[in-house]
Design a protein that fits this description.
Number of strands: 2
Order of helices and strands: EEHHHH
Strand order of the largest sheet: 1-2
Shape: elongated
Low-confidence stretches: none
Largest sheet: 2 strands, antiparallel
Mean pLDDT: 77
Number of domains: 2
Radius of gyration: 36 Å
Strand content: under 5%
């Protein structure tokens, strides 16, 4: 049997119908390029959503008025403790010894006072 088929009406030779080509799989580089494009688009969408949320929150008086002296005081206390340990341990400065094991209940009391004070100011 030949690869050509003859049409009895025309007497001309036609090539045999070729099998449909299997769809080619994308290469690794093509898949990675597509992944990069999709990740970039997702990052752009996320950035736009984050900017929109930040704009909404900056206009909300409840959020912009959330600045509290208690938060600033807590941050300053943490900063002071960090500087104390930096000077004492890292820099080797001769600072007075503080009995930290005896002071932790004081930290719990201060945290409780801050929480109570913030709770009272929100109701007022």
């Amino acid at each position: 049997m030949t690869s050509e088929q003859r049409d009895p009406n025309t007497d001309t030779a036609e090539p045999a119908a070729a099998e449909p080509a299997a769809p080619s799989q994308p290469t690794f580089e093509q898949r990675m390029e597509r992944f990069g494009q999709e990740a970039g688009a997702a990052g752009e969408r996320f950035g736009r959503q984050a900017e929109a949320a930040a704009d909404r929150w900056s206009r909300d008086p409840a959020v912009s008025g959330a600045f509290s002296a208690a938060g600033v005081a807590f941050g300053l206390i943490l900063l002071a403790l960090g500087l104390w340990f930096l000077a004492d341990i890292t820099l080797g400065m001769n600072l007075p010894r503080v009995p930290w094991g005896d002071l932790w209940p004081l930290a719990l009391i201060l945290i409780g006072l801050v929480v109570a004070a913030r709770g009272m100011t929100r109701r007022a």
